[in-house]
């Protein structure tokens, strides 16, 4: 019985970080310095949230473990280390394992394991090892998204016996590999800190497959985390960015410098792209670029808490929970549910309400979700922690309306922790945060079971019962309430380069050089150009093609810097200076992979007549 032997899995009430003015850098290596102090100061503000956390914490832990096979009593048919989404087998049938959900669930387990003092719980270690093992097997399973080398890693869900799910579905979903990498890297980092590099080397091939997938595919569209919209998605980009950033660090620690450089280049580019989701008009994050909705979506709240790095302060670049953009976004998101759910009626505009995935949602009638409502509280607790740690909070024009909910006369500025404004705001924000916990508490049955949703009008649990992700979200929110922090992941001090218009400039990454040569007879006034599938060759646009110079006519040549180790296709064209007429060489396209970083090659091509 896994659940019984793990009774001390989480001890929410006893361990509280001494939050005020703690240096939060290097939390990973100094986790043993977490102090224990009376919780009265932090936790007595809202008794109903507190009571609920005391009662629900152990039940959420048991509920989560019960859904992991085969020892979990709701998942006995699942392969070892497989987390089912829910034991519900009809309306809806969630008896599958989603790569995303499983990674988030195991992140909770790994973080707890890594945080625990020795002697650690070996049954948790066994569970983590079986997760890693099962995921490595799933990577090999050919499925409707492809096989291990042709995109199969983007498959969203599998049968619980490790076979492919072949029904129609919203695929691919490109957040899974990055989330899984982040979970396995958290484990790998713990192993490195605990002198077990041998096992990190065993895990590395699995991690690398996921990171390579992310590095190659982050700039493509896919289905969002709710499996409905195929476009670019904020959550997905944020998860990919984090995975690449951590992957680069781990690769470096394993002396894989070339990989570290390429992950880091793609992390820079994903971070650039992440900025583009901010919608300055509405002061919120447009969660999907497609779908025809407002874009107001729990996607962005979940991304902010998944991106939380206690050492990164309130940096808006990674949409840290206390960043002005993330707080403004939180207000827009929460407010969008005030009038559409009956159970939120009559609640004051600055008090907590039940929230759902997005206001336009119609799935199962469009209801509040436990995990989204918990996520709001978690973002607020994360923020409170950082403000206390840095000893101040800042109000910018972007976050002003968020803070004015709690003090209508408050102005932009920097407020030190000993100021009255700081005291008033943080105390009201803590009450606000506790309110979201209490709202979920009011809709949790006596048994502590957390379904996926509760009715927007009757407040009764609905849709899939015992959703594993609901339990995981309760646990991370309760931990944040108690100031127990996730481990920093490298969000601190990140920077992007901007052009004169303030737009982020992508990092081309390591370059190589190609000398293109081709023979072509031309008439007076005609010149030979090259164009192709990459920006350096003008993206197939003759107007941006690169001109070759004659060299021993009819031979033409040009030397071009190309991103290293990149496969691309191209054609030569002839353009008439006077008429502008373009003559393309015939199919097929030339295709080539550029050499490694810093290297140079000469390609002597034949014009395709
Ligand atoms: C994956 O599919 C490609 C294309 O069909 C094929 O060439 C390759 O051998 C397959 N790889 C595996 C491991 O099955
Ligand atoms: C390293 O970790 C693996 C996986 O948990 C374990 O089997 C092995 O015994 C560990 N090795 C050492 C030296 O601790
Ligand atoms: C790919 O990246 C570029 C540059 O950031 C961006 O303009 C484009 O929208 C991205 N496309 C996708 C599908 O991510
Ligand atoms: C912001 O507003 C401007 C002017 O009204 C409009 O042209 C633009 O499309 C809006 N952008 C977004 C992302 O809504």
UniProtKB/TrEMBL annotation:
Keywords assigned by UniProt, alphabetized: Carbohydrate metabolism, Glycoprotein, Glycosidase, Hydrolase, Polysaccharide degradation, Signal
* PROSITE patterns xref list: CBM20, GLUCOAMYLASE
Question: Which Gene3D superfamilies does the protein's record reference?
Answer: 1.50.10.10, Immunoglobulins
Q: Does the keyword Kinase apply?
A: no
Q: Which domain of life is it from?
A: Eukaryota
- Catalytic activity, reaction form: Hydrolysis of terminal (1->4)-linked alpha-D-glucose residues successively from non-reducing ends of the chains with release of beta-D-glucose
Which segments constitute the CBM20 domain?
506-609
Name the InterPro entries for this protein: 6-hairpin_glycosidase_sf, 6hp_glycosidase-like_sf, Carb-bd-like_fold, CBM20, GH15-like, Glucoamylase, Glucoamylase_active_site, Glucoamylase_SBD
Keyword Iron-sulfur set for record = no
**So which residues are the signal peptide here?**
1-19
Q: What is its EC number?
A: 3.2.1.3
Task: Name the protein family.
Answer: Belongs to the glycosyl hydrolase 15 family.
What is this protein's record name? Glucoamylase
């Amino acid at each position: 019985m896994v659940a019984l032997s793990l009774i001390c899995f989480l001890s929410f009430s006893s361990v509280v970080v001494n939050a005020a003015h703690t240096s939060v850098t290097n939390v990973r290596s100094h986790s043993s310095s977490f102090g224990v102090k009376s919780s009265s100061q932090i936790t007595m503000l809202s008794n109903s949230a507190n009571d609920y956390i005391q009662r629900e914490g152990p039940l959420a832990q048991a509920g989560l473990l019960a859904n992991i096979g085969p020892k979990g009593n709701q998942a006995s048919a699942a392969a070892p280390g497989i987390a089912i989404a829910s034991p519900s087998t009809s309306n809806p049938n969630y008896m599958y394992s989603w790569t995303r959900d499983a990674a988030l669930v195991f992140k909770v387990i790994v973080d707890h394991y890594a945080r625990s003092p020795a002697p650690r719980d070996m049954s948790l270690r066994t569970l983590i090892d079986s997760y890693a093992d099962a995921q490595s097997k799933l990577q090999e399973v050919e499925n409707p998204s492809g096989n291990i080398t042709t995109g199969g890693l983007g498959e969203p869900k599998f049968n619980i016996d490790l076979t492919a799910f072949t029904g129609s579905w919203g695929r691919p979903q490109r957040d899974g590999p990055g989330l899984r990498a982040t979970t396995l890297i958290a484990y790998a980092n713990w192993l490195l800190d605990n002198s077990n590099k041998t096992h990190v080397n065993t895990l590395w091939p699995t991690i690398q497959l996921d990171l390579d997938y992310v590095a190659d595919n982050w700039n493509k569209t896919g289905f969002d985390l709710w499996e409905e919209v195929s476009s670019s998605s904020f959550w997905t980009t944020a998860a990919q960015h984090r995975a690449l950033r951590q992957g680069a660090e781990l690769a470096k620690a394993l002396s894989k410098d070339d990989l570290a450089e390429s992950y880091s280049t793609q992390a820079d580019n994903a971070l650039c792209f992440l900025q583009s989701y901010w919608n300055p008009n509405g002061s919120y994050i447009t969660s999907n670029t497609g779908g025809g909705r407002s874009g107001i979506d729990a996607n962005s709240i979940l991304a902010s808490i998944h991106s939380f790095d206690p050492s990164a302060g309130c940096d808006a670049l990674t949409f840290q929970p206390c960043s002005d953009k993330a707080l403004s976004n939180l207000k827009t998101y929460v407010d969008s549910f005030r009038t559409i759910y009956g159970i939120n009626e009559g609640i004051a505009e600055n008090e907590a309400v039940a929230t759902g995935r997005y206001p336009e949602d119609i799935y199962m009638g469009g209801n509040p979700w436990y995990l989204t409502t918990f996520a709001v509280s978690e973002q607020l607790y994360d923020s409170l922690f950082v403000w206390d740690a840095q000893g101040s909070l800042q109000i910018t024009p972007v976050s002003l309306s968020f803070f004015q909910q709690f003090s209508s006369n408050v102005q932009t500025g920097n407020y030190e922790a000993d100021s009255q404004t700081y005291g008033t705001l943080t105390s009201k924000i803590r009450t606000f945060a506790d309110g979201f916990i209490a709202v979920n508490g009011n809709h949790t049955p006596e048994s502590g079971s957390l379904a996926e949703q509760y009715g927007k009008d009757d407040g009764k649990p609905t849709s899939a019962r015992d959703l594993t992700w609901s339990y995981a979200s309760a646990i991370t929110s309760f931990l944040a309430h108690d100031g127990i922090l996730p481990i920093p992941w490298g969000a601190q001090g990140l920077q992007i380069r901007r052009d004169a218009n303030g737009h982020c400039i992508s990092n081309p990454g390591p370059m190589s050089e190609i000398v293109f040569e081709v023979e072509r007879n031309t008439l007076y006034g005609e010149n030979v150009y090259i164009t192709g599938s990459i920006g350096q060759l003008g993206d197939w646009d003759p107007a941006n093609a690169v001109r070759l110079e004659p060299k021993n006519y009819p031979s033409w040549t040009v030397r071009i810097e190309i991103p290293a180790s990149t496969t691309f296709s191209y054609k030569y064209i002839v353009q008439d200076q006077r008429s502008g007429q373009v003559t393309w060489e015939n199919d097929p396209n030339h295709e080539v992979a550029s050499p490694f970083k810093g290297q140079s090659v000469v390609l002597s091509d034949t014009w395709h007549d």
